[in-house]
Design brief:
alpha/beta; Rossmann fold; binds flavin-adenine dinucleotide
Amino acid sequence: MSDVLVVAELTEDGSLRGATFNAITFAQKALPGLGGTFAILVLGANAKARAQDLTGFGAAKVIACEDPSLAQYTAEHFAPTVAEVGKAYKLVVATATSYGKDLLPRVAARLDAAYAGDCSGVTSEDGNLVFQRPMYAGNAFGFCRLTTRIQVATARQSEFTAAEPSGGSSPIESVTKVAPGRAAERVQVVGLDAVKSERPELTEAKIVVSGGRAVKEKFFEVLEPLADALGAAIGASRAAVDAGYAPGDYQVGQTGKIVAPALYFAIGISGAIQHIAGMKGSKTIVAINKDAEAPIFQLADYGLVADLFQAVPELVAALKQRR
Ligand SMILES: Cc1cc2nc3c(=O)[nH]c(=O)nc-3n(C[C@H](O)[C@H](O)[C@H](O)COP(=O)(O)OP(=O)(O)OC[C@H]3O[C@@H](n4cnc5c(N)ncnc54)[C@H](O)[C@@H]3O)c2cc1C
């Protein structure tokens, strides 16, 4: 029997979401404290095909729950199956994406299990898992142990590198969807109004170009050419979102999305701790700000003290020339 169950995540079009691989790394880091193996559970309308994509990551098995009614995610429909499968494990994990943060607390409740959300680390002490969790926007860490027989946890994506295939071929097992309870009767998906974009998804992108309050109404006019030149996703500070310059799902930070791209541009962003909480895991950070004292420069690998309305078009022109 395996000890850790990783709950995989699919995108709306049924592909594997990259966050699944960060959850695998989280599971692998928890294993020394449990001394066993891990399994992966994938749910969806095409779960068997996706399970096939997950056989090379060293799992003891990959469990597929394929059912047409799982084409669209709702916690009420997914949680009963995850909880039923999860009963056989000591630890159930996923990445703390919107999906993981929505699904796993419900799973924990069904399993009567304690839950540690948004963990940035996991170690073991005297045979017990110790979960590290960021507090006060990442300015302090809390360490907790879960004392229930089954433990449930989500991992902060930016703190765990995506697992790479390690060879081997895990066996695939099928399970039947568990009939959802009465809660599911109250929930009906009537449609999905997803934002269609040619750009990479913010949390999956290798490069993110983010703008702050200073970019004002020219948010897209200024940032899109740079994002286009770099093949980047666009992000925003909360101030830019609150002012209506960018949509809410662009927000990076404590109350927005957590990103950890290879390259992050903070343009006209001061560097408030709540913003930094969402992007400090980025490998290389570039800041453009006209205030040399802006806190973002303390974090940035490269800083340019300049007026963004001049610097960004010049950067775009230079990038185009290099092509
Ligand atoms: C509970 C809570 C949760 C929060 N969650 C988040 C969150 O998730 N994400 C988030 O981002 N914030 C969050 N905030 C808000 C956060 O505290 C800051 O208010 C916000 O990040 C500031 O956004 P900003 O840097 O765009 O704006 P400002 O702080 O106004 O900074 C604008 C910057 O632009 C520079 N600038 C001005 N003009 C130019 C120019 N022409 N060229 C170059 N630079 C220029 C200025 O020097 C300044 O540094 C949260 C706050 C609270 C209390």
